[in-house]
């Protein structure tokens, strides 16, 4: 709306909190809790969004520490949620690990979340391939190569891809 951008900084809802540090902190907390109420965030991802909205000088680190202490923000919970949702979408471990790293989750937490998922990656690769291309075997080498590229793009390892295509782990015949 027209009156929302009073401070001229292009940020809605922060005009009254611009001068008073307590009001600004309350506004940051309100925004962060609203974001976390909609979905899980990794600490780095939420920090980036809040810094973009409230500026570099905003005390975002202290707010994130408070959110973690209250258990509203938890990278372990976020990693588990992301792994489960990506497995349901038929993505492999390489692609999931990359998504976790892009969202600022540590390598240790990423590996832990992937291990706790207990997924049979070979079966998931075969199911993903079957859903996309049907139950039949590849018609020719060109079709097999197309299926292999698809599975690699989805984030499966070479072993998982070949097992899904051949069922016996054999390479291109």
Give me the secondary-structure category: mainly alpha
**Whole-number average pLDDT?**
86
- Total domain units: 3
The helix/strand order is: HHHHHHHHH
Q: What is the count of DSSP helices, taking H or I runs of 4+ residues?
A: 9
What distance separates the N and C termini?
A: 64 Å
Helix coverage percent:
55-70%
Instruction: Give the DSSP E fraction (strand runs of 2 or more residues).
Output: under 5%
Net shape: elongated
Question: Low-confidence parts lasting 5 or more residues at pLDDT below 50?
Answer: 1-10, 168-173
> How many β-strands, per DSSP?
0
Largest sheet: number of strands, sense, barrel closure: none
Structural Rg: 22 Å
InterPro entries: RecX_HTH_2nd, RecX_HTH_3rd, Regulatory_RecX, WH-like_DNA-bd_sf
Protein name: Regulatory protein RecX
Function: Modulates RecA activity.
Pfam families: RecX_HTH2 (PF02631), RecX_HTH3 (PF21981)
What does this structure look like?
This protein is mainly alpha-helical. It folds into three domains: 2-69, no CATH class; 75-117, Arc Repressor Mutant, subunit A, CATH 1.10.10; 121-166, Arc Repressor Mutant, subunit A. The chain is 64% helix and 0% strand. α5 (93-102) packs antiparallel against α6 (107-117). The longest helix has 18 residues, at 21-38. It is elongated. It starts with 20 loop residues before the first helix and ends in a 7-residue tail after the last helix. Residues 1-10 and 168-173 have low confidence and may be disordered.
């Amino acid at each position: 709306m027209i009156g929302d951008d009073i401070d001229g900084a292009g940020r809605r809802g922060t005009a009254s909190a611009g001068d008073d540090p307590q009001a600004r902190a309350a506004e940051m907390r309100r925004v962060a809790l609203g974001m976390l109420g909609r979905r899980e965030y990794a600490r780095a991802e939420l920090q980036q969004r809040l810094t973009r909205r409230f500026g570099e000088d905003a005390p975002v680190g202290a707010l994130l520490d408070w959110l973690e202490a209250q258990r509203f923000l938890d990278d372990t919970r976020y990693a588990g949620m992301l792994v489960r949702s990506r497995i349901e979408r038929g993505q492999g471990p390489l692609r999931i690990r990359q998504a976790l790293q892009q969202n600022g989750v540590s390598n240790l937490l990423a590996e832990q979340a992937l291990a706790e998922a207990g997924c049979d990656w070979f079966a998931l690769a075969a199911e993903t391939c079957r859903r996309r291309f049907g139950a039949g075997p590849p018609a020719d080498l060109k079709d097999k190569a197309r299926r292999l590229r698809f599975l690699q793009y989805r984030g499966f390892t070479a072993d998982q891809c070949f097992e899904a295509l051949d069922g016996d782990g054999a390479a291109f015949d």
